[in-house]
Write a structure and sequence with these properties.
mainly alpha, Four Helix Bundle (Hemerythrin (Met), subunit A), 4 helices, flat
Length: 139
């Protein structure tokens, strides 16, 4: 596979062939940068949690500190799940299935992919999925 260089001002366009090499490289970079940012934040959290071994004499302070810690850990868990979705999207770029709806096989709009690069469903399929979810949740 030849390496495509992407100009920093490049943005995918509907005027070019869908998921051409430039678009795949654009989304690969976007996903890699997002993953790097998440990992940097996680490292910062880890460092903060390791250095915070204060013993709060006040019960309210201790409770507040524990709550903050729990919220931070929950956020990191969500980001861990997000990292696995990013890895799955990167795998789809490699195998050529990135950008296509898992349900219909149709292309996912470039606008949607730019806003949510881990998207696996087209907007229409996602909306159908959410409507079905609401119906079953109401039961």
């Amino acid at each position: 596979m030849t390496k495509v260089t992407i100009d920093e001002s490049y943005a995918p366009s509907d005027a070019e062939p869908f998921m051409n090499e430039r678009q795949r490289e654009y989304f690969r970079r976007k996903l890699m940068n997002w993953k790097s940012e998440i990992l940097r934040e996680a490292q910062g959290t880890l460092t903060a949690l390791q250095s915070e071994n204060e013993n709060h004499p006040d019960l309210a302070d201790r409770a507040s500190s524990e709550t903050d810690r729990a919220i931070e850990l929950r956020a990191r868990d969500r980001q861990r799940k997000l990292t696995s979705k990013i890895d799955a999207a990167l795998s789809r770029i490699e195998d050529g299935s990135y950008g296509f709806c898992e349900e219909t096989g149709e292309p996912i709009s470039l606008k949607r992919l730019d806003a949510r690069p881990i998207a696996t469903l087209s907007l229409e399929a996602q909306e159908r999925h959410e409507r079905r979810e609401r119906v079953y949740r109401d039961d």
